[in-house]
Amino acid sequence: MSFNSFDEIRQNSIRIFDVIDDKYLAHISDKKDDESLKEHSILVSEYLSKINKSQNIESIVENAIDSLFLLLNISGGNEKNYCKSIFFDSIILHDLGKINPNFQVDRMHNALFENEKLIQKYYHSFLGSFIFSNFYFDKILKDETIVEEHKSLLYFFVLLMSFPISKHHASFLSFEKEFGNEILAEAYLFIKHYSINLEEDVSISFFECLEDIMKEVQEKKPSKINFIFFSLLKLSYSLLTACDYYATNEYMADMRVDEFGILDENLKQQIVSNFASLQPYNRELVENIEHYNTMPFSLLKERNRQNLNRLRQKLNAEVISTLRGNPDNNWYYIEAPTGAGKTNLSLACIAELLTIDKSLNKVFYVFPFTTLITQTFQGIQDTIGLTNDEIIQLHSKAGFHEKHSLAAENDAQYGSEKRLYLDNLFVNYQFCVTSHVRFFEILKGNSKEVNYMHHRLCNSIVVIDELQTYNPKHWDKLLFFIENYAPLFNMRFIIMSATLPKIDALSETAKGKFVSLTPNKHDYFTNDNFAGRIEFDFSLLNGKRPDKEKKEAYLMNLASFMGKEGEAYFNKHGKSRLLIEFITKNTASEFFRIASETYFKGYKLFIISGDILEPQRKIIINELKEDKYDKILVVSTQVVEAGVDIDMDLGFKDRSLLDSDEQLAGRINRNASKNDCKVFLFDCDSSVTIYGKDKRYEQQQKDKEIYFGFKEILRNKTFDKLYEKVFEDALKPNWADGDKLDAYLQNFERLDFKNINNEFKLIEDNNSEQLYIPLEIDITSDDDIDYLKRINVITEAKKISGEKLFEQYINLITNKQFDFTLNQIELKKLTGLMSRFTISVYPKIINEISSALDEEKGQYGYRYFSHWEENYKLETGFDMQNVKNDIFL
């Protein structure tokens, strides 16, 4: 039996409002006629229809319901139609609670109901869910075509879909098993008073036996059904809040939205065509794909720039051909060495998938670091010709994204900016480049704002890079969401890493499902053009880590050694570009001071750490790319490992995780065009402070084969040896106590949205605070000068004043009379600029510099570093002569 169409459901739903008098209001305005409840509900249904048609939501819902009934071994077609109607009606009918006369009088100032007020509150959300639930309870109860034993499932589904209604004005989505007697009694009295199509005590009894219904349903089903309930509930909440927002906005702001950032056929063809034509190497690849597929590795052994590029082309050809051989899979995995061009590999996959599967209509690019997001954003635009109309960056440091097509508009009512605000809020862009943290919040999070974007996942391609960045204790949870969302929401995942093997081995249900797009990965990893770009040197590893008293002497000796190696390289090659990475910011700062005073007088010195503001990091990277200096020393922390596109000659690294050591090596001789490039590992600070809870670090320390064989792993790129041990450990019952997946999945049985979100955090709460440093920074070429002038933050020296910017921020958030949407737009613009003046610091650093902080300004979400001149420098961060060394990590 086929499903009823969405249009049929919508028509039946709207008829309900024909029996509701137009005197019921949904919104009021001083500038126009009031909006009736019927008018608002019709507008909500129209937006639901538009989103459904543009994103093919209907097929996703039908697929989820089919999967649900298949797993429950129920074949009933009428029951399926009930579920589909319940899902969409929960959105269309979500405001039924506004018929509450108290709401009409107290909130709508509707005098027609003065004589009908009841002894209850003006709420409408819970009342709406109550009316909706009982409407369907009564309908199901009386329907003799439904098999009696299936009715409990439908009752449960009604209750499930009623919660987005009850929570659509709350900040967070939750599923509650118990309700206060008072609110239940009030809701029932209302329904009884108005005789809303219910038999005596039907409604109250169903809500009271919710626990029994849940238990009965869950006893019948396998565990995967929990995820279907979870995802449908989030999808309903996302669509409800989005359609309600769009409809309310159209009434209040006279702004109709018809475009939702979907890849249409023209743009798909443009992407495919541009990939094959804009960049000469891709044009050559597409024209000669079979040539590269058949090119033997034996001809590519010699290390030179030409062979490196041929290997990149061969790898790309292999990825494309393997994908073409597996067109229907939901999960693809790319293992490629550092410097292989993973972004270009993923764009090739996207072009192929858009050609193969016409239902795909959005792309998410997911990265761990802001620098990677920014670089990839530009790389995507250059490779496939996208503009700001089609691609957006979504992360904490991104400002207010503007579309080129709207930038020229000058609306006195700020119409174009309000439309952009909607596009930003709902990510109405065909491509979204975002962070791992933000993306998995969309998958699992329970806040209203993050769920605005949840329906955007449907029919999407998702590229996830550098998954190994995060603690292995969460990989099984990452895998769980990737495995379960993909078939349900018609998503294609492309996962990429230079070190992490296919993670489907972590799950019995996922094992073997991920298709490796690089079946000959070993031939690439061990080729001299990748593995031989640098030589690892372990001569500094003598097994003795310096204690605190000998630390300075150790760093002095290390600086002396580096200086000699740098001079030898310079004498032979005419240049010397040195990079050294430390585990802690404290040691990096100390070494930078020593280097400045001793062995590197002829060098241009830079420091890159978490204490260096983002604009200064960009200046450093640009200077390194310009190749202005013959002698360079860059001192850094882990922030340089990924997302920093630099090419150095010699590397020095305080040994930590093997992944981390390999990432640092990726900054050395990136294009295999130089000789005698080395990475020296040394042992200065203990890694346990940062990596002690990481299962990879644990394996490195306890497994003899890894502990004594790490040199060969780094030399031969056999990271699988480490991960086989980690994966084997992960499958043991005592893997990580409460972090074990089985314990986490119990939250899905209870539909505990709060813990589903809170017990899976990629970045653990480290109590860090945002420190705002009000210095002056340069205006960049990307800055909107007109906007900077309008907010009056440009100094006489033509720089951006951090002090004036913060004053604008305070004025904005204390101005309660400002239009809400315009306020949010301005806030996004200001905080985007303010991120350039902000670093994350630990509480003990805040305590150390407390006398230099402005406590009055510190009440606005940032710690304000008013007297920064005494303790901080733009080029070098905190001044270690004035700030105690032992407070830094």
List the helices and strands and how they pair.
Layout (H helix, E strand, L loop, with lengths): L5 H10 L9 E3 L7 E2 H19 L1 H16 L4 H16 L8 H6 L18 H18 L8 H16 L14 H13 L8 H7 L1 H11 L3 H30 L11 H11 L4 H8 L1 H6 L10 H20 L6 E5 L6 H15 L5 E6 L2 H15 L6 E4 L9 H4 L7 H11 L5 E5 H9 L3 H4 L8 E6 L9 H15 L2 E6 L17 E2 L4 H5 L9 E3 L13 H23 L2 E6 L3 H13 L6 E5 L5 H13 L4 E6 L13 E5 L3 H8 L12 E5 L5 H4 L3 H8 L1 H13 L3 H11 L10 H9 L3 H6 L10 E4 L3 E3 L6 H6 L8 E3 H13 L5 H15 L3 E4 L1 H6 L14 E2 L7 E2 L3 E2 L11
Parallel strand pairs: 3-8, 3-9, 4-6, 4-7, 5-6, 7-8, 10-15, 11-13, 11-14, 12-13, 14-15, 16-20
Antiparallel strand pairs: 1-2, 16-19, 17-18, 21-22
Characterize the structure shown.
This protein is about 50% helix and about 10% strand. The model is unreliable at about 195-205, about 410-415 and about 885-889 (pLDDT under 50). α2 (about 35-55) crosses α11 and α3 crosses α4. It has 37 helices and 22 strands.
